[in-house]
Amino acid sequence: MAAHSNDAATHVHEILAYHETIEYVREYVDSHPNTVMISTSDHETGGLSLSRQNHLTEYPDYLWYPEVIKRVNTSSYLLAKKINGYNKEDKIDFIKKSFRDELGIDDFSDDDVEYLNKPEEFNMAHEYYLANMTSARALVGWTTHGHTAVDVNLYAYGMNSENLIGNHENTDIGDFIVDFLGLDLQSITTLLNKGNSSFHLNNHEDISRFNIDHLAHYHHGHRL
């Protein structure tokens, strides 16, 4: 989710957590030779790039500074929530301290402080602003807060995984799983329908019990 916020530092930690998870699953597959691990994504998000050109009037240096990202100690989401929830009289000092301690940024401006001191409830604007403070200094660029058309990686490990080498349409992954598990999707669909072809619409309201409102802004304002 960090890519939606263009939060470079948190994005790194999400990738590291992903690697740890994959290693754990690989160990399971190794001990269960009749299984397969598949890892892919439905889309790329954020359009990350390096060597960001902050000033169009200057010739780019084609650099980026990972040490800026390394200094970050919390996500832009949590920091924005923390700052917006702080209501004591020393909020200005609190914001400045947050820049230094949580983002590792000392060269912030009065405008930065003023923007984060706006008396408003937690919102994406503050989250995005904090993330950009890091990205701009690290010379990390982003093309969007949404999805891109970039091809996503496909990883497979274990039994029959050689059939997933190369480029594939996304529906090929589903077909592979169906064949691997010996599924009869038609009978499953019939069972789910139970004579009612709109079962998925009737059950749509059931998801309202889940706390997913905070994700709506990532999907054009629609509830999932």
UniProtKB/TrEMBL annotation:
InterPro entries named among the record's database cross-references: Alkaline_phosphatase (IPR001952), Alkaline_phosphatase_core_sf (IPR017850)
One Pfam family it belongs to: Alk_phosphatase
One of the record's GO cellular component terms: fungal-type vacuole membrane
A GO molecular-function descriptor: metal ion binding
Note on how the cofactor is bound: Binds 2 Zn(2+) ions.
Enzyme class: hydrolase
EC number, as in UniProt: 3.1.3.1
Keywords assigned by UniProt, alphabetized: Metal-binding, Phosphoprotein, Zinc
Gene3D superfamilies named in the record: 1.10.60.40, Alkaline Phosphatase, subunit A
Chain sites annotated for binding Zn(2+): 4, 42-43, 147
Domain of life: Eukaryota
Cofactor dependence: Zn(2+)
Keyword flag Phosphoprotein: yes
Protein name, per record: alkaline phosphatase
Organism classification: Eukaryota, Fungi, Fungi incertae sedis, Mucoromycota, Glomeromycotina
